[in-house]
Design goal:
It is built from no helices and 16 strands. The chain is mainly β. It folds into 3 domains: about 1-60, Roll (SH3 type barrels), CATH 2.30.30.30; about 65-125, Nucleic acid-binding proteins (OB fold (Dihydrolipoamide Acetyltransferase, E2P), Beta Barrel), CATH 2.40.50.140; about 130-185, Nucleic acid-binding proteins (OB fold (Dihydrolipoamide Acetyltransferase, E2P), Beta Barrel).
Length: about 190
């Protein structure tokens, strides 16, 4: 058993008959009254995010998680298929278990989180940044650099992002997979 002093980002715990991962936390010590921990928890089974406050010293049940490297293969009507890089075993995950599945591209290496107790996959962690090719975007107007305007663009994996006006079709861009934000043009 762990307590609220052990809470940190990424910690997985059992709460309300579900497994949650701590997305954000804040230890609060008000001038009057007892200390508490304010958390933002994400369900690893449903993907829902909830805010919860734990009193200081509250006991929590920590869940043992294993991270395993998998390679993305393809998507079909059963879900997204992945292959273990070491054993070549294949698994499939439902779309609800993946944050931003639009940024998955074939043969991308990802980490799948497993509940070590019963060997069930919980969720998938994409790399923080990926480089994707712009497959479609409207051409920018030459000389229109007076402000930080963004235009819609479609990347090779099918996701739509917002990019600066100077980005053209065929360019490779670096994208933050957590927010879907354009970061920079990739170096060739």
């Amino acid at each position: 058993m762990a307590s609220t002093s052990d809470i940190k980002n990424g910690l997985c715990m059992e709460f309300n008959n579900d497994i949650y991962r701590v997305v954000e936390f804040q230890h609060v010590k008000p001038g009057k009254g007892a200390a508490f921990v304010r958390t933002k928890l994400k369900s690893l089974t449903t993907g829902k995010v909830l805010d919860n406050t734990f009193p200081s010293g509250h006991k929590i049940v920590e869940v043992q998680i294993e991270r395993r490297k998998y390679q993305y293969l393809y998507k079909d009507d059963m879900g997204y298929h992945f292959m273990n890089n070491e054993t070549y075993d294949q698994i499939f995950l439902q779309e609800a278990m993946i944050d931003n599945p639009g940024f998955l591209s074939e043969s991308m290496n990802v980490e799948v989180l497993f509940d070590a107790g019963n060997e069930t996959p919980l969720t998938l962690d994409l790399p923080a940044h990926v480089e994707l090719e712009i497959t479609y975007t409207e051409p920018g107007i030459k000389g229109d650099t007076s402000n930080n305007s963004l235009k819609p663009a479609t990347v090779g994996s099918g996701a739509e992002i917002r990019v600066p006006l100077f980005i053209n079709q065929g360019d490779i861009v670096k994208v933050d997979t957590r927010t879907g934000a354009y970061l920079e043009r990739a170096k060739k």
